Amino acid sequence: MVLNDQKMVLTRDAGGETHAFSAVCTHQGCLVSSVADGTINCKCHGSKFDITSGDPVGGPAKKPLPAVAVEVRDGAIFQA
Question: Whole-model pTM?
Answer without folding.
Answer: 0.93
